Amino acid sequence: MNFWHIPWFIFPYLLLIFIFIKWHKKSNKPDLFFKLAYGSFFYLFLYLGVIEAQNKSYFFLVPLLFFVFFSSVYSRQKARLINGFLFNLFIGTFGIYLLYNFFITYDVIVFALLFLVGIFVAIVGLFGFVGLMVLFYWNALVVIRRESHSLANLLTLILAILMTAWLIYDSMIAKMLPNWASLLLSILPVIFSYFIFTFLNFLSASILYQFNRPSYDQDFIIVLGAGLVHGAEVSPLLANRIKRAIDFYYEQRKHTRHLVKLVMSGGQGPDEKVAEAVAMKEYALQRGIQAEDILIESNSTTTFENMKYSKEIIDQSEVKNPKVIFSSNNYHIFRAGIFAKMAHLKAEGIGAKTAFYYLPNAFLREFIAIIAMKRKLHFTFVGILATLLLLSAIVSQMFVL
């Protein structure tokens, strides 16, 4: 491996990063991370293309095309499940390409990238299925101690039990069954594997959405409501949503002085003394937001209605072609973005932090809701898989007879 050209790769890159950050600070735009990520990927592809071209090979174009395709789809609509699939497809293709590149170039920088990927894969491999199962049991105990015992808060426990059952079946029971019975019972693990695959795509898409950084020229910030404590008090979860919106409110005033209004969105539940939006407004007033900068939407009972009814209020304003964002908890903004599109509201989300122990259950709950939104598509595909396995079991039994 040759080391002489490493400075020619590192120093220009660091210089370009330094110049870009200096320029970006003057622009008062918050989307630094994505621009750095995109620029870094294209710089890396340029480098890989140059060293590969010396061997008269141009396979770097394959992952590059996957990256461009993902980027074009993602830029048009960030809240789409397909974004996670395309990103994972790019990462997989890029990993295979790095292996190919190293075997034809023996480049030290490519080796370093493979080494970092190898460490990650090794950690995941060591943690493995059993480690993940133990983690879910631990998380379930923490959630049970700190939160209510509702079904939504027991999802990691249910998943851990299912994983335990799968492990017992695969290691003990499957070996004792005839071939046709194993094929028949494999329907459940195959379905489980399909939903794991879909969950990984959802998780990637949702994590990508966390890096959304809207520009400081917004006209409205919709704050999505959540349940109140004792029927009238803002809960810690809801408080984080409001604080995130207030932070952006002050950041925009600092950077551009562009006026922005908060739309508090949330109706009154059967166990609540006041509408969520009213309690949210009071919370914001106590933190220095002027009353004239707060609008109330108090009819919604779902996230879709949050978007729909807030859009009606925004449409009644005098602002032409208003720029809108919404604030919710980080695990929720991806699905909320889908509802915004369904309500014909052009808006992107900013996420408030959530307690780490709460995230596994929260993301599982969001995933179940995403599956429910497209349940016909997913269960049709699952039905096809189950039918194929059932036919295989029947054919296997016929040959035995």
Helix/strand-derived category reads: alpha/beta
The succession of helices and strands, N to C, reads: HHHHHHHHEEEHEHEHEHEHH
What is the tally of beta strands? 7
CATH top level of the largest domain is Alpha Beta
The number of helical elements comes to: 14
Compute the gyration radius: what is it? 25 Å
Fraction of residues in helix: 55-70%
Average residue-wise pLDDT: 87
Give the name of the CATH superfamily of the largest domain. HUPs
- The first-to-last residue Cα distance is 61 Å
CATH architecture of the largest domain: 3-Layer(aba) Sandwich
Task: Quote the beta fraction.
Answer: 5-15%
Strand count, sense and closure of the main sheet? 5 strands, parallel
What order do the strands of the largest sheet run in, or round the barrel if closed?
5-4-1-6-7
Instruction: Give the low-pLDDT segments.
Output: none
Morphology call: globular
CATH topology of the largest domain: Rossmann fold
Number of domains: 3
Transmembrane segments: 6-23, 32-51, 57-74, 81-103, 109-138, 150-169, 181-203, 379-400
Domain DUF218: 219-368
InterPro entries: Cell_Envelope_Assoc, DUF218, Rossmann-like_a/b/a_fold
Organism: Tetragenococcus solitarius
3D structure, described in words:
It is a single chain. The protein has 401 residues and is α/β, with parallel strands linked by helices. Helices cover 67% and strands 7% of the residues. It is globular and about 75 Å long. The chain starts with 5 loop residues before the first helix and ends with a helix. 27% of the residues are buried.
